[in-house]
Design a protein that fits this description.
By secondary structure, this protein is an alpha/beta fold. It has 13 helices and 10 strands.
């Protein structure tokens, strides 16, 4: 009888131990927070969030991220209305903040736009494009701005060029990012210039609202840490990044690697926003009298969060 009672006590103790340890595990199991981030296109411009998502980095830092494709103007409205938490559209964030909207740019993934000016075979240099029709993806966007700045380096002003968005059939040249620029080069079309050689402006990166910056810094830093780690992965792991590119964009291995080689040097090393590049973007807006001359980079960028995230990651 004593043995039975003793055995019962032992079994009860074991059950209690398992139950308690299970409860402790459940309490300590990390939870993820749903986060919605807007991107403009499924393109190499958004390789940082694609790597962060596909390699499980957002989840690692506690975010269950949904990447939602939206046009830039719609994404800004969605951000301000609270339908999404972030936009991966730093140019839109900067321009909107400069116009007085309650948002700030907080990081950048790409410090130089990696567009290529690809021309018909009769054109041998950028200077030959005076008076030509150049196809770009959108008027007023980073593609357009980068093209204008690059052409100015060759003495070609806006009055000497016709920009023709999305009408490639009529164009003498087009301004494209990989893989499309790489594909055209394969087909024998000459690349006359790469904008990254002439332009240093933030090309992609996060923006969010002033309210979120004030009230949810912990969430922002979780997202930033995932994207900082994605940047490090892109620059240190060519094979792994090529694999993400291949799967995301349905490319063959060779095209994916060629595309990676074209863009890798354009990526930031730490996610910090280059204020001199922001000043270039603001000056373009000022020249067109779209924003007041008093707007400075510090008024549209909040650098404190990326600095805090980097410090918490070991100051690297």
């Amino acid at each position: 009888m004593k043995m039975t009672r003793r055995a019962g006590i032992v079994i009860a103790a074991l059950i209690a131990s398992v139950f308690l340890s299970g409860n402790l595990w459940a309490q300590e199991k990390p939870t993820t927070e749903k986060v919605r981030i807007a991107i403009a296109t499924s393109s190499m411009a958004f390789l940082v969030p694609f790597v962060a998502k596909d390699r499980g980095l957002y989840t690692k830092y506690g975010s269950e991220v949904e990447l939602i494709q939206m046009r830039p103007n719609i994404s800004v409205a969605a951000l301000l209305s609270g339908e999404i938490e972030y936009i991966e559209l730093i140019g839109s964030a900067i321009r909107s903040a400069a116009r007085g909207m309650p948002m700030r740019a907080i990081s950048t993934g790409i410090k130089s736009p990696f567009f290529s000016i690809v021309a018909q075979n009769k054109y041998k240099s950028v200077k030959d494009l005076k008076g030509a029709v150049i196809g770009i993806t959108s008027i007023g966007g980073t593609n357009h701005v980068s093209t204008r700045i690059t052409l100015r380096q060759f003495g070609i002003g806006d009055e000497k060029v016709m920009y023709d968005a999305f009408k490639v059939g009529r164009a003498d040249a087009v301004v494209l990012a990989p893989p499309f620029s790489v594909q055209l080069k394969r087909e024998g079309f000459p690349i006359l210039a790469n904008t990254a050689q002439y332009v240093t402006i933030p090309f992609s990166g996060l923006g969010t609202t002033l309210d979120r910056i004030k009230n949810n810094r912990a969430q922002i830093k979780r997202v930033l840490k995932a994207e900082i780690e994605a940047l490090r992965f892109i620059q240190s792991n060519a094979a792994g990044t090529t694999d993400v590119i291949r799967k995301r964009f349905n490319m063959d291995e060779k095209l994916a690697r060629e595309s990676y080689d074209v863009v890798v040097e354009a990526f930031s090393r730490d996610g910090r926003v280059p204020l001199d590049g922001v000043d270039i973007l603001l000056q373009i807006e000022k020249d067109q009298k779209l924003i007041p001359n008093t707007v400075t980079p510090q008024m549209v960028v909040d650098s404190s969060l990326i600095d805090e995230a980097l410090k918490e990651m070991g100051g690297r």
